[in-house]
Write a structure and sequence with these properties.
Blueprint (H helix, E strand, L loop, with lengths): L1 H28 L20 E2 L34 E10 L7 E9 L14 E3 L10 E2 H4 L8 E4 L7 E10 L9 H8 L6 E9 L10
Antiparallel strand pairs: 1-2, 2-7, 3-6, 3-8, 4-5, 4-7
Length: 215
């Protein structure tokens, strides 16, 4: 009987030592932990771009009549029409007021699909962003439609205090040269009653560069 009591006491003592050891180990592994949460926020840059006050619902501005851009004596040519030997200019007003990014813009001038029942435009009808005179012969529509016609493009920098820009487009219908058949060609071209041109103005966000990028 004594042996059983002695064994029971030893068992209880061993259990107690085990519990104490476990508590000590648990205290050794404990550590302070703190979880802190937060949020990252960003304000999206506002995008605003318009040309010639185009209607918001259609994104189209009013038609530009080349005949209305002439400045000739009424005794020489009827008001509102163009002819060989005439020239003029018109403005396209770009507006990015309120935009929070820079704007790359392109202005494309092409022959409208409905123009002159598929007849060709006068081949010597040219356009430019600079006055067309000696040293600057302008660009035909074919050239403007190609990569080499990038004269009608540019950038409105965000740092500009007023994100507006007026682009003046000069046009000219010079007389045909002798190598083109001169009078015969001009006479044939003047038989074209109506000319319709499509003008497409596109604004694109400037690709941001890092502050350390080379300029």
């Amino acid at each position: 009987m004594m042996k059983k009591n002695h064994a029971a006491r030893l068992g209880a003592l061993a259990l107690a030592l085990t519990l104490v050891s476990t508590c000590l180990m648990g205290g050794t592994l404990a550590k302070y932990t703190t979880t802190v949460t937060g949020t990252a926020t960003a304000t999206v840059a506002k995008w605003v771009f318009n040309a010639n006050n185009a209607a918001a619902d259609t994104k189209k501005f009013e038609n530009i009549n080349l005949g209305d851009t002439l400045n000739y004596k009424v005794t020489d040519i009827k008001t509102g029409v163009i002819a060989p030997g005439t020239e003029g200019k018109f403005d396209i007003e770009l507006n990015g007021t309120g935009s929070k990014v820079g704007i790359d813009y392109t202005i494309e001038i092409t022959k409208a699909a409905i123009t002159m029942q598929n007849k060709e435009l006068p081949s010597n009808l040219v356009f430019s962003t600079k006055e067309i005179k000696e040293g600057n012969t302008g660009n035909s529509l074919d050239k403007l439609s190609s990569e080499s016609g990038s004269l009608l493009s540019g950038t409105i920098d965000y740092k500009d205090s007023k994100m507006e820009k007026t682009i003046t487009i000069y046009w000219k219908w010079p007389y045909a040269t002798s190598t083109e058949g001169a009078d015969i060609k001009d006479t044939n071209d003047s038989g074209i009653e109506n000319i319709t041109l499509d003008i497409t103005v596109t604004g694109t966000q400037v690709v941001p560069e890092t502050a350390g990028a080379a300029t």
